[in-house]
Description:
The complex is a heterodimer of chains A (540) and B (313).
Chain A: H1 3-27, H2 38-43, H3 56-59, H4 62-72, H5 80-92, H6 95-100, H7 102-113, H8 119-125, H9 134-147, H10 153-156, H11 158-187, H12 191-196, H13 200-207, H14 217-229, H15 237-242, H16 244-252, E1 258-262, H17 272-276, H18 299-303, E2 309-313, H19 328-345, H20 368-374, H21 380-384, E3 390-392, E4 405-407, H22 420-424, H23 435-440, E5 447-450, H24 466-470, E6 478-485, E7 493-500, H25 510-514, E8 523-526
Antiparallel strand pairs in A: 1-2, 3-4, 5-8, 6-7
Chain B: H1 7-43, E1 46-51, H2 59-69, E2 82-87, H3 103-115, E3 120-124, H4 131-137, H5 140-147, E4 150-152, E5 159-163, E6 171-175, E7 183-187, E8 189-193, E9 197-199, H6 220-231, E10 235-244, E11 257-266, H7 269-279, H8 288-295, E12 307-312
Amino acid sequence: MRPRHLIWIRRGSQAFFLLLFLFLLIESRLPQDVILDYSLAVTSDQELAIERPVGFFFQLDPLVWLSSLLSGRHLIKGFWWAMALLVVTLFLGRVFCGFICPLGTIHHFLSFVKPALKGDRMVRANEKSPGQRIKYFLLLAVLVGAVMGTNFAGLLDPISMLFRSVALAVIPGIGAGEREVFGWMAGSNLKILNLMSYAEVLLAPVFGYAYKAFQTAWFIGLIFLVILFLNRIRPRFWCRFLCPLGALLGLFSRFTILRLEKDQERCTGCHACTRSCLGAAGPEPGKEWEGAECLMCFNCFDACPEGALAFRFRLRSPRLSKRPDMGRRAVLAGILAGISIPLLGRLDGLVHKVSDPRLIRPPGSLPEPDFLNLCQRCGLCMKVCPTNVINPTLAEAGMAGFWTPHLVMTQGYCEYTCTLCGDVCPTGAIAEFSVKDKLERPIKIGSAYIDRGRCLPWSGNGPCIVCEEHCPTSPKAIYFKKDVVAGPDDTGTQVQLPYVDLRRCVGCGICEFKCPVKGRPAIRVISAGESRSLENQILL
Amino acid sequence: MNESITRRSAIKRLLGISGTVAFSTLTGWPFRDLGDLRAETTSRRFMVEGLGRTKGYSVKELVKKVFNGAGGIARFISRGDVVAIKPNISWARSPDLAAGTNPEVLEGVIELCYEAGAKKVRIADHTIHDARRCFAITGAGSVAKKTGAELVFPRSSLMKEMKINGHRLDVWPVFIPLVEADKLINIPVAKDHGLSTLTIGIKNWIGGVGGRRYALHQDIHQTIVDLAQFFKPTLTLIDATRILVSNGPSGGSASDVMVKDTLILSDDQVAADALAAGLFGIKAEDLGFIKLGERWGLGTSDLRQLNRKKVVL
């Protein structure tokens, strides 16, 4: 096969997987075609499930598999995809990086359309540097940390990072801009603009039907921009220096049978191969090829004008690739970091001593230590939630739980018969549950309590039963007692005073969301009483 | 008017006014009766009650029968009309839980509208739960698909501030498709409610507005009467095939539901609600919004003033 063809096959594959990734990301929502079988809807509470395999890329990701296996001793569903990928890597090297990884593709594209450097400077930049050991340091920190019981792989894993960045920052950001434009058009006096504003419905399936908000999303977006910008310093900076998944695949690529073969005789020393090398893997004849660093992009193969380089299968004379240059210091530091981060992460006491009242986990979430073992902080549950209630944490779950999901009831509420977050969670940190589980077990995510100083009837400011009206349980967890309260004029007004029955309250938060007192509502949900915890209980 | 009013001029004026009134009453009285009669024939409101008495009756058929009882759909819907339908599909609950309008009732009305030559039928409700889930689970989505009616997504750009001119509400954001229609049909379900005791037709208009509607509960009876006066539906068809008798308005359990197999069609919003209240064993005069609706001339709870009819299937 001519090298040019190989390049085009690679580009085709990269485009395909990037588009597939984005497609599955957009499809991580309530199914667009919500029109169901009529007869079904008449007889039972219908579960709205997502048909597409939206977790596919997470199942393909060996770092997700290994980290959840090491920390949670749990085999995630569909893990054989990741296993298969490791087997492929054993034989073919880091083809995932060159052909599949959607984040790698974005970096690749940026490095390609706007190369960081030119000419000789690029040749020098693409020579192997000690900085490339950082990714092994990060990989070891992540894996040792997972063994020690805090799984923070998702903070650095490329699939989790790309999903989180696009779903929580890029799409809501564009959506906000788009909604401004349509809002302006709908409010315009020109008939034509008015009519055109209806096109919003066409974009809504992608960008959502209302303003989406995710706490700390600005920070997620900023990190994403910085990582993209790093391509201006070195091509595929992220993949070369930082990516822990790339490091893992690099370690597995030692036995590859697809190898770069160099012909010293033909080489004229033009450095075209090094100039085009994205992984700084030493493609030039005279140097040793670094199989663990090679991204399998085949650029060098294509760039060599003399035909001195070729990728060939070597089945007969198997030979190990050069040992990955991890560096002793990187290994030691990685192990130390992996041990200390989980310990430091527990110092705030949020895992073992107390829990933050605002840390309301999605329904179906495992007990906190198990949850932290498995959660990849990928944002899939946050993307899929129809009410936008699931948000990344900042400090609520402590350092160890940074960016894990929690529910912000002023922003949305947990729909009583919705099961989507449990359906999509790629690692089972949110276990799968059914509507029946939610109603009958019942899954309780927290408890509501009334702030009598703020509540309109309790404070004598007038009647209001919005919390009771929206309470979804039957019988309702919010009930009234009729009473006369002293109003402002001391006239005594007849009101219905709301009370919460903790035995019935499931903590869904619709009362808090709909309460007329905004910002800090008069009825609020705290995590106390959540059914996932044995300790965090109120009642005997 | 710098001129001060003296006692004499005041008496003169008063006499003048009362004289005129007295004269006009005297001379006008033979005609007045005639005029009232004429008004009666055009403005006497009607009410048709439909009861499904046979086992396994078709709700759609009952809808059609009720409309026939009212003189046929063509009396209300003209060829080329854009019809907006306001069901109650606020909660993502299946129809058997009676938290939303029975989809078969919806389907029946939409089919009738199209038969009458309606250009377009829109189903519009500003839901409480996520609208996509409501559309799917209440069955409204499948009705729209089956009948070809348009199911309007309650997006924020469709809520526009309008002059309500009510006694309590002045300006409020309104769900526009309900206003931009030639004919408007209110199809509520009859349910229990913690604050207004019942939510039937008049209360259903809360689902026709946007904005801070949770604040409307602070003066619920007056605000919903204001909204009912603003929306002025052509017809109200109350779905009482199943009613929610406890834990309303959201319900959620089959034990909260009572089967009544009743439909009430009227052009008087107050009267329709008053009759439906009877199904719950609640007296109309105990409901604040019915009293206020009567006071402000929205309709009457005195059912004898209506042309009443009963159809049975």
